[in-house]
Amino acid sequence: MEREGRGTRFTPEGRRLLEQARRILAVHDEAVRTPLKSDGDTVTVGTTEHAADQFLPRLTAAVQEVRPGCRVRFRIDRSARLVEAVERGSVDVAVYVTEAAATEGTPVGGLPLTWHAVPGWEPPPAPAAVPLVAVEDPCAIRRRAISTLAAQGVPATVVGDAGYLAGVLDIAPTGQGVALLAAVGPAPDGLTPYGGLPAVTPIPMSALARPGADPATVEAAFPAVRDLLR
């Protein structure tokens, strides 16, 4: 380790050791799980909540095309926890928000983001702050919403915090505020895209496969995500 400001960080040697240790643990976990598998060929796919309803069907189809009869399991979680699960070997392939995890993975494109609110919603007149509904910190999309508005001189305040995206989709339809959501697939029930705020650039997404993952599965899954985001 070495000092960085008031904290510490890994040296290049430390990062290499960490990567080696993660590979050792992943191989160990796989060796322990192998005798316990009784449900045949199974692949576990992980995604963030954002656009999961679009990612999971595409990934399932891609995996089953190269592994007919394969059973696909799902895990939906925050980006950092998905990366940890992949490195432990409990998730085979994961798609996540790049800047929300310490591991960059393989870039697969940008997730488009659009403001959503109830039909007819309008923010309060300036100089009042725009009311936002968002996933609680740490959340890269929450930070993107606030920073985009701040860059345009638009004051904002979070009026609705939620531990997960499902909570945002419960609060926003009550008309309490506007939410920044993935613009892939249809708008959530009770919400519609709102164009009265500054446009937000797509947020980079990454894909990561566990050490030792089937190459054919990886080669099928990653392009499926790129096609969707394209």
Please explain how this structure is put together:
The protein is an alpha/beta fold and 230 residues long. It is built from 6 helices and 12 strands. It has helices at 12-33, 52-66, 79-88, 140-151, 165-171, 215-229; strands spanning 2-4, 7-9, 42-47, 71-76, 93-97, 106-111, 113-117, 130-135, 156-162, 179-182, 192-193, 203-209. The strands form 4 sheets. It has a 5-stranded mixed sheet, sandwiched between helices. The longest helix has 22 residues, at 12-33. The relative contact order is 0.19. The mean pLDDT is 89.
Helicity level, as a percent range? Answer: 25-40%
Main-sheet strand order equals 4-3-5-12-6
Q: Biggest sheet: strands, sense, closure?
A: 5 strands, mixed
Percent in strands:
25-35%
Q: What is the H/E order?
A: EEHEHEHEEEEHEHEEEH
Main structural class = alpha/beta
> Unreliable stretches, pLDDT < 50, 5 or more residues?
none
Counting DSSP E segments of at least 2 residues, the number of strands comes to 12
User: pLDDT average, as an integer?
Assistant: 89
Provide the gyration radius in Å.
Answer: 20 Å
Counting DSSP H or I runs of 4 or more residues, the number of helices is 6
Q: How far apart are the first and last residues' alpha carbons, in Å?
A: 40 Å
Shape: globular
